[in-house]
Design a protein that fits this description.
This protein is mostly helical. Helix content is 73%, strand content 0%. The protein starts with a helix and ends in a 12-residue tail after the last helix.
Length: 200
């Protein structure tokens, strides 16, 4: 049940995120749907390739595709004056998607009895893979590679699940809330990782 709820939350959040980025870039309706779907399912596809699950397993998620399409349609029909608040709500939906999918990816790898390193990689790729593909298709710098702390929160999800610190449904939902909150704090207060720039 936890798995399905987190999948649903992540799918809705990232589908909305992809659709709004597409509208910001003035894509047509087909582009909006494509970017929304790619954002919602791109991370899962990359994860499946790396941990040995057939990519075709994604096509068994018919319900989630329907949920993603409905979410994208709702965003496309939303009034423009409400969509102007994307900077605030877009970051928030992205934080929810990151947290939900990072936990989902880590659970997937853990249930397949992969080592801790694979659980962490699965968490990072599932949590941020869709966003990376979205940003690349929109010709933006991937959010995960910028100074703002992003992938670190997915790594924490992988560690918590790989080390069996979060096992029960209550612990997993608590982890989801904590990671979402940390991501919101990191973009609100502009927490950054150390960076080094080469002089010219």
């Amino acid at each position: 049940m936890t798995w399905e709820v987190l999948s649903m939350i992540g799918t809705i959040a990232f589908a909305i995120s992809g659709a709004i980025v597409a509208m910001e870039e003035e894509y047509d309706i087909l582009g909006v749907y494509i970017l929304g779907i790619v954002t919602a399912f791109g991370g899962g596809a990359i994860r499946n390739l790396l941990i040995g699950v057939p990519v075709s397993a994604l096509w068994e998620q018919g319900l989630f595709f329907q949920i993603a399409l409905l979410s994208i349609t709702a965003v496309f029909l939303f009034p423009n004056n409400l969509l102007k608040h994307w900077q605030k709500w877009g970051n928030f939906t992205d934080a929810i998607g990151l947290s939900a999918f990072a936990i989902q990816g880590a659970l997937y790898a853990s249930e397949m009895n992969h080592p801790l390193s694979a659980v962490i990689v699965a968490a990072v790729l599932t949590g941020s893979g869709g966003g990376i593909v979205r940003d690349l298709l929109a010709r933006r710098k991937p959010l995960v590679l910028k100074a703002e702390i992003y992938a670190v929160w997915a790594i924490l999800c992988g560690l918590a699940i790989g080390l069996k610190l979060a096992v029960s449904s209550f612990e997993l939902y608590t982890l989801f809330i904590v990671i979402t909150g940390l991501r919101v704090l990191s973009y609100t207060y502009k927490w950054k990782l150390p960076a080094r720039r080469l002089g010219t």
